[in-house]
Input
Amino acid sequence: MALTKPELTDLYRRRAPRYDLSANLYYLLGFREWAYRKKAIRALRLEPGDTVVEIGCGTGLNFGLLREAVGPEGRVVGVDMTTAMLEEARERVDREAWDNVELVESDAADYDFPAGIGGVISTFALTLVPEYDDVIRRGAEALRRGGRWVVADLKLPEGWARHLLPLLLPLFRPFGVTADLADRHPWESLERHLSGFGMEEHYFGYTYVAWGQAQGPG
Ligand SMILES: C[S@@+](CC[C@H](N)C(=O)[O-])C[C@H]1O[C@@H](n2cnc3c(N)ncnc32)[C@H](O)[C@@H]1O
Output
């Protein structure tokens, strides 16, 4: 059964102090977390001066690359519902003296996207949000013309690789991943609410980077 929101915030409160280290440990399994992050951020095709919103930003591991993409005139907004994860993000932002990064404590389901933004990204977080379809729809409506929504996350692959699930699931369980999350398909929401849909799969099809582009007048 998927964890409830209070269960998820409790889990991430406990994980927060060691989150960055434990996320990197997945390299030992060949899970190239940073390669997927970089692909996702490149797929945003941000322009200097853009505002980019990150949903479920956690400790802010993507902020450095996002800042590079939007430049000193741009803005990065990190949204997360777990206070302890945002405290880690705040430490990173203060340590690096990043003055164009804003942190917002909010459930993604309640977050009001600013209008005219250049991109929205979520890495390894959106599948945890039961209202992901509505979050993608509202984020899509807030994008400027040509702005992109990009999701990198876990999914269940087709074919033989499914047999690896009993081995892999216990390894991702500490981050709130349960088997029933396989029924949540954020990439289909990107395809539904945006144009120019694209998707690439990695790690035997257990992870993906997917994107859609706004064509509206925004
Ligand atoms: C696995 S971490 C990913 C953090 C970051 N995106 C990264 O790539 O390192 C998942 C994050 O999603 C956040 N999260 C889960 N459900 C959420 C929700 N409904 N609204 C906002 N944040 C949520 C958790 O608090 C946690 O920080």
Remarks:
- The beta strands are 51-55, 75-80, 101-105, 117-123, 143-154, 195-202, 207-213.
- Residues 5, 8, 12, 23, 56-58, 61, 80-82, 85, 107-109, 123-125, 128-129, 175 surround S-adenosylmethionine (CB under 6 Å).
- The chain is about 35% helix and 25% strand.
